[in-house]
Design brief:
The complex is a heterodimer of chains A (about 240) and B (about 220). Chain A has about 240 residues and is an alpha/beta fold. Chain A is built from nine helices and ten strands. In chain A, helix 3 packs across helix 4. Chain B is mostly helical. Classes of the chains: A alpha/beta (about 240), B mainly alpha (about 220). Chains A and B meet through helix 2, strand 6, helix 3 and helix 5 of A and helix 6 and helix 7 of B.
């Protein structure tokens, strides 16, 4: 399968603090990679580097062969290809749900308004939020906002979706509705990198698991092996913290 | 009650003309304050140490100094000290803009800082460039946060223009006093009626603005 994202020896430093170094990761089209690790291990920062929200100090990130660099002229184009959904509900509060979805396709991709609206309504129906199209974000629950945020990323037709702990700020009863959407995206063959603390979900959705600790990849592998038969002590310890 | 003096001659028209002077000074000052205040407010978020110190001193001066003292300094002070002969209305506009710019800048700075970084990030993640992010995402949110507060500033300015009669500008309050003085013998109770009407005129000028602010606040509630 075609390689869509290639991370070569990437380092991230803030002055004298090293967040991570020598990160290597290759993601193929249609693959779902789930990254787990303790808080503060650098997994969210790593994800943010992938669409140049954070600069890297060493190495290179290639998205469909193009270098990801916030200083490059083409960065807008590259970011369109990497749809990102954040932990906090980051919808634009002054726009309705439909306007939130239509802003980028119409202003950035210069697509036809009618056509975008049709697509937006279709996607909203798919995530069960068609009736909320004219609501403002403040009128939605956390789970509903997060589903809209996913759709807002999808409507840009990204090559890869980056999901950064998208259920971490949700009430437990809303986690399911969001994860179901992600699961259905995985089934239709979307390429995704997911950072999460939901281990059951990770196991269900992942083609490949990656465990990051102390700024480096400690272990990676198929979900079954990864969860049932961890090779490193560090991963075994980490997984144990999730079972009572 | 003293209302009859208002019907004499063109007294009512004179009062309205006085009100127009007040409103003219406030609106010109507000317009200047918005332009300069937005610019200064953006500069203040840049965290340049020189700008920070200078703007803080400026803001403190405006906060501490009564507007009337500022008016006297600019109007009488400049004439004596610098030999510049300012028109009274120009002096008033300078003082009110000096005041308004400081308050606007503080509002703009606060509004800019209150927009979470994630708004900016999620916008550029969607492929919007910096300019598009400001135009479609950041500025609309800033305006929504600022308009109710700046409208409040406008009404305070209109009310405070009553001070400018102290430097000889014939605005609505001064006209009122003149009418009362002129009719001291014929209608000794004129003060009540005239000042009540002036009160109503200020109310008529400020109330719609206040209502607009409340309407926008409701509409943009986030």
């Amino acid at each position: 399968m075609e390689e869509i994202l290639k991370v070569n020896n990437v380092c991230k430093r803030y002055e004298d603090i090293t967040v991570f170094e020598n990160m290597n990761l290759t993601v193929k089209r249609g693959e779902v990679v789930v990254i787990v690790g303790p808080s503060g291990c650098g997994k969210s920062t790593f994800l943010r580097c992938l669409n140049a929200l954070e600069d890297i100090q060493d190495g290179e990130i290639l998205l469909e062969g193009e270098k990801v660099d916030s200083a490059s002229k083409n960065i807008g184009n590259i970011r369109e290809k990497a749809g990102m959904v954040f932990q906090s509900y980051d919808l634009f509060p002054h726009l309705t749900v439909l306007q939130n979805l239509m802003l980028a396709p119409v202003k950035v991709k210069k697509r036809d308004k009618k056509e975008v609206e049709k697509e937006a309504l279709g996607l909203l129906e798919r995530v069960g939020l068609l009736t909320k199209k004219d609501s403002f974000p403040r009128q939605l629950s956390g789970g509903q906002k997060q589903r809209v945020a996913i759709v807002r990323a999808l409507i840009m037709h990204p090559e890869i979706l980056l999901l950064d702990e998208i259920t971490a700020a949700l009430d437990p009863e809303m986690v399911r509705e969001v994860l179901d959407v992600v699961l259905s995206l995985a089934k239709e063959g979307r390429t995704m990198i997911i950072v999460t603390h939901e281990m059951q979900f990770a196991r269900a959705v992942a083609d490949r698991m990656v465990f990051i600790d102390n700024g480096r990849i400690v272990e990676e592998g198929e979900p079954k092996e990864f969860f049932d038969n961890p090779k490193t002590d560090r991963l075994r310890q980490f997984l144990q913290t999730f079972s009572y | 009650m003293g209302f009859e003096v208002l019907l004499k001659g063109n007294n009512m028209i004179r009062l309205l003309t006085g009100l127009a002077v007040s409103l003219k000074i406030s609106f010109v000052s507000v317009a200047i304050s918005i332009v300069l205040g937005v610019a200064l407010g953006i500069l203040m978020t840049l965290k340049n140490p020189v700008i920070t110190v200078v703007s803080r001193i400026y803001l403190e001066i405006v906060r501490i100094m009564p507007q009337m003292v500022l008016l006297f300094i600019v109007y009488f002070g400049t004439t004596k000290a610098l030999g510049i002969n300012l028109e009274a209305e120009t002096a008033a506009v300078i003082v009110f803009s000096f005041w308004g710019t400081a308050e606007m800048a503080d509002l703009v700075r606060g509004a800019l800082l209150s927009i979470p970084a994630i708004q900016y990030e999620s916008s550029i993640s969607l492929g919007l460039n910096k300019l598009q992010t400001y135009i479609y995402v950041i500025i609309p949110q800033i305006i929504r946060r600022m308009i109710p507060l700046s409208i409040n500033l406008i009404t305070r300015m209109i009310k405070t223009t009553s001070l400018v009669m102290m430097i000889g500008i014939v605005e609505v309050l001064k006209v009122g006093q003149q009418i009362i003085e002129a009719n001291r013998k014929a209608s000794p109770t004129a003060a009540f009626g005239v000042f009540l009407v002036i009160f109503l005129l200020y109310f008529a000028a400020c109330w719609p603005i206040s209502m607009l602010s409340r309407y926008l606040e409701k509409k943009w509630e986030t």
